[in-house]
Amino acid sequence: MTSLRRFPRFDFASKFTTTSCTSSSRRGFSTTTSSGSSGGSCTEYALTLQQQQQLESGSTGKSINLFSAINQALHIALDSDPRAYVFGEDVSFGGVFRCTTGLADRFGKQRVFNTPLCEQGIVGFGIGLAAMGNRAIAEIQFADYIYPAFDQACIVNEAAKFRYRSGNQFNCGGLTIRAPYGAVGHGGHYHSQSPEAFFCHVPGIKVVIPRCPSQAKGLLLSCIRDPNPVVFFEPKWLYRLAVEEVPEHDYMLPLSEAEVIREGSDITLVGWGAQLSVMEQACVEAEKEGISCELIDLKTLLPWDKETVEASVCKTGRLLISHEAPVTGGFGAEISASIVERCFLRLEAPVARICGLDTPFPLVFEPFYMPTKNKILDAIKSTVNY
């Protein structure tokens, strides 16, 4: 069927390596902030209709990859708000994935600076910085290492509850935590995990994952300027492989609004991040066999857009969810439960989940662990023929 939003070009000739790197290494949330808070109003950064049309047409940008789009967003955030700061391990020289290249040179080491190798310290510092009315953009070098910050971060007992426990007198809404997540082809146990489901269980934060460069830039700027703490996971597999035209101007994309990127009538597929490109390939193969797939990018996992998914499932009668994280307790389970509650009488088949396996993330066996195109295609056919 019709593809409403094209995917970026994947330049597989570009190896996933870093260069010149010496390191080893809104629904239901506040939309206003109290006096002196770090949240601010998003209306001052509103995307104009003309800018949105330019973004959709892709006529005003240049072709860049995902890490460059992240870099552009950070440049704009620092340039447009003198209260913004970027910090984390190795960010002053560009970071392991080069997302912060050039920031320290342009904005100075007082606003872009390295931290010790201490994730709980990085996030704890960010909470305090944001609570004092600043925009704290913290980088966790790999999402696999965000767990030491789980208590301090939004992450669970501090940032997520800061506004609530003070009766909205104080907040740390200016905090954004960036972290590369997911498979990379050779990351093994400690550089390949997808921990998004842990954070989706925590009221008081937002969880956002982009699928391509233009989405990454617009969503990251929205997260930085949102009046709530946000965890922004970046699919590191796509840092260099995903290439498309990205507008160079300042723009934002709405949070908590899913996007139908491919229309269909037989089955609804829901995913996020790098998995969307795999699901798109499965949709193309299914179409060759006469199966019409509707593909939805959730983009924001917390709070997620139930209405868009519900409307699609009521139309198709079937649902398949796919993500890299292990299937047990993954966010796909929450989507499945919610849609069964809302659409039970419209479902023609059980909800299918094609996800990572319930094992630690393997190294040599990564191809067997991953929810591949063929696994998704088999599940599509099985669900449609149920």
Automatic annotation (TrEMBL):
Residues 64-241 form the Transketolase-like pyrimidine-binding domain. Pfam families: Transket_pyr, Transketolase_C. Residues 19-39 are annotated as: Disordered. It catalyses: N(6)-[(R)-lipoyl]-L-lysyl-[protein] + 3-methyl-2-oxobutanoate + H(+) = N(6)-[(R)-S(8)-2-methylpropanoyldihydrolipoyl]-L-lysyl-[protein] + CO2. The keyword Transit peptide applies. Heterotetramer of alpha and beta chains. One of its GO terms (biological process) is branched-chain amino acid catabolic process. The keyword Ubl conjugation does not apply. GO terms for molecular function: branched-chain 2-oxo acid dehydrogenase activity. Its cofactor is thiamine diphosphate. It comes from Rhododendron simsii. It is found in: Mitochondrion matrix. Keywords: Mitochondrion, Oxidoreductase, Transit peptide. This is 3-methyl-2-oxobutanoate dehydrogenase (2-methylpropanoyl-transferring).
